Amino acid sequence: MSRLLIVEDEKNQRELYALELQDEGYEVDQAINGKEAVDMVKNNKYDAVIMDIRMPEMDGIEALGKILSRDKKIPIIIYTAYSNYKSNFMTWTADAYITKSLNMNELKDKIREVITARAEA
Amino acid sequence: MKRDLKLLAVLISFCIPDILLLLFIIWFIRQPVHDDMMILMPVCSSLLILRYAFMIIYYKYFYSARMNIIDEIISDFRKGKFSVKHPEEIGSGVFRKIMKELTLTGKYLDEIVTVQKNEIDTLHEFYNSIVFSISSFFMVLGDDEKIVYANDGFCKKFRFDREELVGKRIDDIFYFVNARLKGAIMKVKSMNKPVVLEQTHLLSVNKISIISDIKISKILVRGKNQIVVILDDVTTKLKKDYQITLMSHISGSFQKDLKIEMVLYNILTAVTSGSGLGFNRAMLFLIDEEGKALTGMMAVGPDSLEEAIEIWSSISSQDIKSLNYESSPREGKKLLNSVLSANFSMNEDNIFIRSLNNREIIHIYDSLMDENVDNGIKELMDVREFIIVPMMAMNNPIGLIVVDNKFNLVPIGNDSVELLGIFASQAAFSIESHNKLKMVEQEKNKIEQRIDGIVDTEKMAAVGRIAAHISHEIRNPLVTMGGYARRIMLQSKGGATSQNAEKYAEIILKESERLEKILSNVMDFTKPSKSIRAFNNINNIIEDTANLLKNIFLEKRIELILKLEKDIPFVKSDSIQLKQVMLNLVQNSIEVTDPGGIIEIISEHDSEHAVIKVRDTGSGINEKDPNIVFEPFFTNKITGVGLGLAIVKKIINEHNGKIEVRNREFCGVEFTIRLPLPV
Q1: Residue among A51, A112, A64 nearest A92 (CA)
Q2: CB A31 within 8 A of CB A44
Q3: How far away is chain B from the Cα of A92, in angstroms, using its nearest Cα?
Q4: B482/A54 Cβ within 8 A
Q5: How far is CA B84 from the centre of its chain?
Q6: What average pLDDT does range A63-90 have in this prediction?
Q7: Minimum Cα–Cα distance from B510: chain A residue
Q8: Which CATH number fits the domain that encloses residue A89?
Q9: Are strands B147-150 and B137-141 parallel, antiparallel or unpaired?
């Protein structure tokens, strides 16, 4: 069973994603900001990280850099309400950049894709 | 002695008949017999006759000689010679005495006359030299207005003999007589005051043109009135002043009026006005914008000699300044029309185009004899002598000025040609400036339109930014609400009740409340208030702004610190505009502040003002000219057009407030807004 980390400061959203992804059959951990995410990635092994950008204390961009500096191969999917972060070249280092949407199918497809790609590699 | 002998001889000779008579009588008495008495009578009577003859001869000799001398003296006296030539010849006695007296009187009179004559000569010389030393030309008119006298200067200037002048009327010697001059003479005759006519144009019948200040006064000579007319030739002086006057005249009118016709008209009026070049007619041609044709643009001058005389005799040369294209009498309509319809191709080979191409002044002395002048131009000009002067602007020909003296036929002198050359370049400069100014005006309009466009674009961009901001803000709660709603829906499929429906519904409700709050924040910024100026609490405005931008602060990890004074006095203001001010200021600070920086908003008040301070930890501004940041279109950013702070300044000014900006001690800037408190 693949293990995912969801990084999202808004509790309701975070829990919603967790529920949805658990329904898909993933084991899901939750972090409330970038800082916590960096710590959790340090201590645990995840198959993919789904991360928001705008978060207090440490934002997604900074966390992205810190996580990748530790483990370059871990798939990271940016999942945010803001499409304009695409212009920040740091986000290019993520495996995917998905704009939040009522329909979570795009996210689910992308998670499946990156996990499969990693398993094959 | 000799004279005495002579006199003695004369006296003796005078006595000869008496001696002869005596001798005869003695001889007769001695005769013893006086028988022959018959001889006595004839001898005695003949001797007596001889005696009388002698007396007559002597009288003749003595008195007539003396009378001749007296006659001579009298005639000398009459001639003013008070001298006696040979007083000793007069002889002696009473006569001599009288002569002596006469001689003395003569000498005395002679002395008096000589002294007076000397005095008169000196005076005469003195006045003569004064009259000669005066450069003025003058003439004296009798009561019948005929010339009595004219000085040498006058005769030389107008090339007349003095004898020729005397007895003529002024109408006979001047080609046209200025009506003002005639009027002035009448005035002087009727009143006793002298009259001065300044800068009056006179033209003699033998084509001597002069501009002079004329002084007319009345004198009384032997009970008769005479008029002294003194002409001060100011032609040269005026010519020297001319360029300056002309240029100020032209540039003056050029600034006042932007119509090209006006500029051209002024140029030609200056060429034809009496005080300057004084040409009879002037025409102006310009090369069109494509440079393909030379077109007649303007003409000034009379159509006929009658018209010319009417103009010349009614206008003082000074009056040029008051002439105006619109108000001037429109003489010379025919001329203007024929010039306006003149059009020459630049490819044509005629004297006009040649003048332009060779950039040279061409002086045609006799167009009828000159092969260079083609028929078209002959017909247009209809005059023998004229000058073509190209107008050069920045070394490029832009057109021509053509002038002539069609009506008074005064030959065109080299000095006039030279002056006209200088003038043409000034005129070209005027026209060029006029055109350039027009171009600048057009460009200015274009730029203004473009600025309007930029402002519109900026407004659109602002709308776009707000739209993006709002859409992002509402996306988060929307996604959450939708997600939970779908979960409820999926779990309730087939009639089953969702285990967490209540919890999910609660989340949806909270998120929708949050959504509403976001929307009301936005609405606060956009809804127009009913009264534009109301008493507002600036703290509320600051807090609203902070709320709206909360997420941006989070996103950029900038700390926002609000230090708001409690119970701050209300300020009469437009809340929407003030929110705009705060939004623009804070956004500006956010843009220049790096992550980890701090933005402080402070509210406080003093006795007269409510004060808002916005401090950031950004890069600061140029110390030398901090206020430049309020200039429209000043920007250091790659995006945006630099209107934000300009709008801030405008709004604060409209509130009678002040805004200042200064660098803070270590980093960043502090904006200070002071809004007046109600009195």
Answers
A1: A64
A2: no
A3: 18
A4: no
A5: 74
A6: 83
A7: A12
A8: 3.40.50.2300
A9: antiparallel
